[in-house]
Design brief:
Number of domains: 2
Number of strands: 11
Largest sheet: 9 strands, mixed
Number of helices: 21
Distance between the termini: 32 Å
Radius of gyration: 22 Å
Strand content: 5-15%
CATH architecture of the largest domain: 3-Layer(aba) Sandwich
Oligomer: single chain
CATH class of the largest domain: Alpha Beta
Structural class: alpha/beta
Helix content: 40-55%
Length: 448
């Protein structure tokens, strides 16, 4: 039985909430709240929930159609995403959607190789096909920095096209990594334990060499500017990834901050590039996990020294950014038992007592949209820290409180929240027998 205080909270949230059925969210209302924001960051409470992808896609479509957004930046590696970008821009004549999505080869493939993403990409391609060649087409870009070796290859491939002697010099600089057999974590461990010297100077020298050659490589057109920018971002990624892997064994806070700083810098550089090319303010949608999108200053991680993408965007564009979070109470999720393990279709345990998810489950509506930073009574009731669940690519219910929950102040973390009582697992394009079968009724899933 609910206490009087709990009844007051539930009543206040119910009064402020805007219910919806299925994925039929009231985008018109949300777009009104977004107003003139140029950076709309849309989160997800897990990396494997079908509804999160579908609703993000619908919001993104309306931002493109009604508010003129021109680009989407996702929590994926820059080189892995570029093939899909080229498919959307129709830069490779015979590239199919299946081939475009094949660029996502690394774990976890299902994050971007899934039916919901494929459907949205087909819509984006159709939309771009209807735009004149001299007009701004929707671009897709990756923000992350894991794929160090793919970015090195991309820098060399670009230089082979525009400056073969410079490509040879790049190969010599990047050869510093060869002894680690393509494993950046092995490089990080070797430098952390002083087994090997770091490649810091080599990657910095390569980035500076590329920057010095900008005027020689960029002609007076968008195509050469885009190609150079793509290569330059790969060189920046190599520099930042080298630093990231060196800090990986020093503690989670340092590596987390480096990664989110890289994502923020990539977003800001992308905005600047598009503004120079198209002579208009950049308007960019971001797809990333709640833990990256929500302002870290409102979480217990923030009190421990972590910062994140949402916080950095809010600081740089305080009146031009809008942060949207998701939550779910129970259902199914696509996740792995451990890092690098196969994708499984797992059941999500009902949310823990005292969590925002459990609080939202008490609301009258099973699915709703809620503005939470407007000083409403509902926001006032939610100001005290509550537990919030975060499921990444690994789900471990046996240690769920430790692995998947942290305290946050939701009204300061996001501008709006989308809650669904029950959600379903995103469908990978490469389903396994284990995923198709799902879990036995008497078992629980695993991890983050």
């Amino acid at each position: 039985m609910l206490t009087n205080e709990a009844v007051k909270v539930r009543t206040a949230i119910t009064k402020a909430a805007h219910p919806f059925v299925g994925q039929a969210i009231n985008c018109s209302l949300l777009l009104d709240w977004i107003g003139h924001a140029r950076f709309v960051l849309i989160g997800e409470a897990s990396h494997g929930t079908q509804e999160f992808y579908q609703i993000r896609a619908e919001i993104s479509k309306q931002l493109i159609l009604q508010k003129g957004f021109q680009a989407i930046a996702i929590e994926a590696d820059w080189p892995d995403t570029y093939q899909l970008h080229e498919y959307l821009q129709e830069k490779q004549d015979k590239l199919t959607i299946e081939q475009a999505l094949a660029g996502f080869k690394r774990f976890p493939q299902w994050m971007w190789r899934n039916t919901a993403v494929q459907e949205f990409m087909l819509w984006l391609r159709q939309y771009n096909d209807g735009i004149a060649s001299d007009k701004t087409k929707i671009g897709l870009y990756g923000l992350d920095l894991y794929n160090l070796h793919a970015s090195m290859d991309a820098v060399v491939n670009y230089l082979n096209k525009v400056d073969p002697p410079a490509a040879k010099a790049a190969i010599e600089r990047y050869a510093c990594f060869e002894r680690f057999g393509g494993d950046p974590q092995a490089y990080g461990y070797a430098t952390y334990t002083d087994i090997s010297h770091a490649c810091t100077q080599q990657v910095l020298d390569q980035l500076m060499a590329l920057q010095r050659s900008a005027f020689a490589y960029v002609k007076d057109n968008h195509e050469t500017a885009d190609e150079y920018f793509y290569a330059l971002q790969n060189a920046r990624l190599v520099k930042n990834a080298e630093h990231y892997y060196r800090t990986l064994f020093k503690g989670s806070t340092s590596s987390w901050n480096l990664r989110d700083q890289h994502m923020a810098d990539t977003l800001f550089q992308l905005a600047e590039h598009r503004e120079k090319c198209y002579q208009q303010p950049a308007k960019i949608i971001v797809w990333a996990h709640n833990s990256h999108v929500g302002d870290a200053r409102a979480t217990e991680m923030g009190t421990q020294g972590e910062y994140n993408l949402g916080q950095l965007v809010r600081k740089k564009y305080p009146n031009e950014s809008y942060l949207i979070g998701f939550s779910t109470y129970t259902g199914e999720v696509t996740a792995a038992a451990n890092w690098g393990a196969p994708a499984e279709r797992k059941r999500i345990r009902p949310a823990l007592p005292g969590s925002y998810e459990e609080l939202f489950y008490q609301v009258e509506y099973p699915n709703f949209l809620l503005a939470i930073n407007e000083g409403s009574q509902a926001s006032w009731y939610m100001r005290e820290p509550h537990l919030q669940r975060a499921i990444g690519v690994v789900y471990r219910p046996n240690s769920e409180r430790l692995s998947h929950y942290y305290y946050s102040q939701l009204p300061n973390q996001f501008d709006a929240i989308i809650h669904l009582d029950e959600t379903h697992a995103v469908v990978p394009l490469d389903t396994t027998t284990g995923w198709q079968h799902g879990e036995w009724p008497e078992t629980y899933p695993s991890g983050y």
